[in-house]
Amino acid sequence: MSLVNFTTREITCKIVYYAPGRSGKTTNLHYIYGRVPDSRRGRMVSLATQTDRTLFFDFLPIDLGQISGFSTRFQLYTVPGQVYYNATRRLVLQGADGVVFVGDSQARQLDENLESLQNLQSNLLEHGVDIRTIPLVLQYNKQDLPRELILSPADLDDALNFRGVPSFSADALHGKGVFETLKGISELVLKKLAAGTAA
Amino acid sequence: MTSALNPKYSFDTFVVGAANRLAVTAGRTVAENPGSAYNPLFIYSGSGLGKTHLLMAVGHAAKKAAPALNIEYLTLDEYVEAFHAAIAAGQGDAFRRRFQNVDVLLVDDVQFLTNRKEMQSELLRLTEALQVGGHQIVITSDRPPPEIADLDERLISRLSGGLVVDIGAPDYETRVAILRRKADERGAKFEPGVLETVAGAESGNVRELMGALNRLVAFQAVNDRSINAETAKQLLGIGTEAAPGDGGKTVGREATPAGRTGGGDEFGEFLADVTVTVGKAVEAWRARVGEAVLRWEGEGYRTRRLEALLERDTPAAVDEVITAFTQDVERLKELEAEVAELDPQAAGQSVFRDPERLGEAEEVAATVRNGAAPPPGPSGAFPLAAYAVGPSNEVAVGAARAVLKQPGKKYNPLVLVGKSGLGKTHLLNAIGLELARGKRAVVACLSTQAFVDELIAAIDGDRVDWWRARYRRATALLLDDIHLIAGKERTQEELFNLFNLLQDKERQLVFTAPAQPHTLPGLEERIASRLAGGLVAEIKEPDRDVKRAVLERMLGQNNASPDPALVDYLADRPAESVRGLVGELQRVIGAAAAQDGPLTAGLAREVLEGQSPRDSRRSAGFRTSGIVVSSLGGIKSREKMVWDWSDIADRVIEEFR
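ok -> structure tokens follow
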């Protein structure tokens, strides 16, 4: 998928929220959905189970309108977090322009975070994408939980952010850090776009 | 009780546009002729459009025109306050008298007369009194008199009786002008487009405009970096293509009321962010191309290729094109510089300014290159190593070595002076050869006669520029026999200019002359003094060391070790010049060749002094201990002689036994 189409003057960014199960990907998308004016958002497709777990994926198209003469669209996806949906994850990841890794700040989830991060890397590799080259940001979600349950952003940075990508602490349920994360990844994606056209 | 006039608020600082031209003209007229033109002058406008400024400007202008005038400026509130105070103090009459004596009364913000009946009647009285006395009254309000609520009919008619003018909201151009002036006043600099962006925002009010400007100034000051139009937009919350406010309508269904910081238009902010980033990303190539176009256009190059790029929507390999273009321009520059040295006239051709015609430029350069041979160089026949050094020329040789060490810096010019045949030309060429070893060295080394002839040919062929350029590229100029320039005015003129140019560039100049420059006839004073200005090194008649060295070298060329007696003999003979010495040697060599005999001191004596060759050969034989010169071509080695001797010795010993 071409990120920038100069002929049709379109920019389409596909951003995938990737994370272990129950870490708040869908919550991120819901929050964004709630903040986007009706006229600018498409229907949010959410395939959830009865227990509100994402079964297949969430999809939220956002139309940013004409920017610098380009009709600009963002497509936000989430992947199902559960381990056994890896085929779906890989599918959703295809053609992603940027990845938001939503980490669960709870201390007991650290291993799952690491595992999911490794899973992300191997799935990207399946698509021939080096995780070091794709725009990636980390979000440390659930920072609103009691201190004793969670790791601080600094600790999480130490544990997860060995690539030194931008990281954001967040409380997706209340919206804290959600748009900051989205801005962060958008910037990376669009900057890469700039580099891409410059080449 | 009256406020002082703010000195900043004058007509000079008031930006006039279509919306306020009438009011300003009326104000100026009033200021020039207080009390006679429009009285009262009633100015109304919305807030922040310059009423107060204009009012004070009238006061300043009136004061300037007639310094004796009594001018009062006050707001209605101040007027009311003063009035109340005066009444309380029982000074009501004094108060009235005071204001009746004012020549120009400026009252700001009279809309506050609403519901102040007594003040209305007081103002009515005052207005009447001032008008009767021929005093000027200028009033401002945020609405025209009839619209001021609850205003006395008489006052309305009184206030409307002079001239009622309004100040409209400034148009775009005026807004830009105001912003520029204010930015200037603040000494703030903005990138192009920033002020236009601010002015472009719908703002019906100059004060708001100032507020926006202040924010930009503050932002720049705090962040210590200049902002661009996009940032300005963001900073001022000026709507991007996504209308701000859209976001506010749809409060997300998931949005929780508590805990939101800012609570505002997160999507709007996000959009603004993305807009800036996309703008940079998508249009970055345009910016780069535009920059390149500006740069090269500024340097006088045609930029069609880059402009064509801008016309396309889909840029293909923008940077490659720019890079290639830049390389082409650089090549053009090289070619132009090269050609400029060879032929300044040719370098002016437009082909050197158009990267699309690089091929042609190459051709032109090649043509010029072929046509421009470098100036004549030094002769390879005179290497420095072969130059014989002795006390008679050691000053000159020392100077030459110093020159070679620091060309153009130490002795510039170096003038080698001496009689004919002392080796000046040799030394000159030797210096030239050494200088020519340098990288990029272009050594012009020739006889003055050749120099003159070349110039004549150039004048004849109308190629003087080319001729000049040829010598101007020289890194060193060495002219032999400079006295030959005598009487050649044009050559002296050219040499004078060339001399100055090269000397300025610290390029070495070396000349030879038969005598001290000042004693040379026919040499212009300016040339002579310049020649004398460096180092004049004299070469004297050759001493014995020089002569020996010369002789040994000459004889050495014949592939044989020279006969020491011959060298001694010739070196001891008086010689006026090296050339004379060489001549003598040649005669001896010639004689030896003619006789097919050996080259010996005896032969030399015979040839040079007329002695019998036979005697001389005999005596020479004794003196030289049996060195046998078999022919002109070679002298038998001493080793061989020793071999023969030992044979004899053996025999002697055997016989002794």
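The interface with chain B takes residues 4, 6-7, 9, 11, 30-40, 64-70, 72, 144, 171, 173-176, 178-179, 182-183, 186-187, 190-191, 193-194, 197-199 of chain A (CB under 8 Å).
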